[in-house]
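Reopening this one. Same input as before:
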Amino acid sequence: MLASLVVRASDESNAYLSWVTFTVLAVTGAGMILQTLKLRQLGSGRLIVANFNVPFLAVCALALSVGGPGLLASLVVVSTLVQSVLTLRLASLRRIFTQTVSGIVVMLVAVSAMPFIISRAVTPPEGESTVLFLVPGMVALAAGVLISLQDKPVWRMWILTVTVVVGLIVAAPLGFYDADIVADARWVSLPPFEWPGRDLVFNADFWALLPVFVFVNLTAFMKAVGDLSVIYRASYRAQSAVDFRTVQGGLNVYGAGTLLSGLLGTLPVAAPWSATAVYIAFTGVAARSVGIYLGILTIVVAFFSKFLAILVAIPSPVVSAAYIIIFSMLFIEGAKTVFTGQVDQKKATITGVAMVLGLSAGSLSALFEGTTSHLIGNTIVIGGIAAILMTLVTEVSGFRAKKLQAELSQSSLAAIDEFLSQFAETHSWTEEGGNRLRLVGEEAILSLLEEEQEGPTEQKRRLVATIRPDRGSAELEIVVASDDAIQGNIENRMAYLGQDQALEDEQELSVRILRHYASSVHHRKYYGIDIVSCRVDQ
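Same output, byte for byte:
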């Protein structure tokens, strides 16, 4: 539906619309299937509902209007190279693409998509009353909100279905459901083969729009990281630390889908959609098999023109009502990502300023002309870049970190202890605070050693310990080149305490000490790298 809005907004031909509809469904379906499989570093191994890459809404319409499908294909293919590099360096970018930044981008997507959809789609027929045209959408939205307000999971499973059905019940008697489109459509058909990807162009328009697409692709990458993280958390009933190896695998499928979209000359799709978390919350189902069935069904639907016509004939106010519910839940998921854990002044400032600047992008764009105006006017780009810049400022201003390199072994405990003791002495910590810091460092190393025993032990592993002061606290970070030998997750083991899951006595003691003496502990796993971050109060 979003893809058709973009094509119609750019006044492209019906033949191209047919090509886009078919290829978007095919690529999206293939992407959902690949996400569930997890073939080495390809796929997340989770149920991931894929959708149109929302940050590209406005810029794709602009590229199609300026240079047609050939220009769009060129811009998507070249800009996708940026996200490929970022995926490989995800661990190195952990202090930039933080949980706060990812959540902010998800919220910006939610608040920026609806104005575009309503402005391009909700247009009453000529001579028709605007109020009467909006009635089905308003009734549908009221029905959806009413169900959402009820604290009954069984009802919430059907919220989108009820929203659309109620809207159609009101729209049909008013004559706003175009049944002729459905009647005229064939049951099975293929679009005429007009591959736009063969018309790649690198003219002046390409170079003028390339910076815009690179920025949007960067923003879309941040959104994908946030979406995959949100979906990972929603896939477990109990709170679970995000395994960033699954995020990297999901990003690889996302990058492949975007590149394929560009080569096919269609719109960028197969992007992970954090609304998957909403569906999981509604249904309580996160099985990978559901993703495979959804992918197969999406590919099959691409060939059934009659079914697509039924969807296309749904009045735009009703579709907009469904999207309002989806994007409102999406906003809440982004907010949960930002405000999980302690909310300090730094996080509050980054979130508030980024959101306000993002929402002001439309007004700011009026001060500029040409390509700059389109870049400045993108809510997600302005808000996302603002969040990144503020995060970088906090990193640079607080960059007083001390580092120690050593082997991951029992013999390194003395060096770690001396390293932490010197830090405590240099920053005038009390004896009690210094002992607490040393104990946390020792137990973090011992926990990593206990986890590593489950994997191969032939290779000696190196660690880099980094510590930096932060307003009366210290942030200790231990980075280990793991080669995926470290099997468990310290953060998850801490969450298991007090639940039915039993830990061995030695493991439980180590984890209890960490939870008691550290104000926060995070264990992030990437391909080949384990990162444990502990915050200790002075």
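So the earlier flakiness isn't reproducible anymore. For the record, The chain is about 65% helix and 10% strand.
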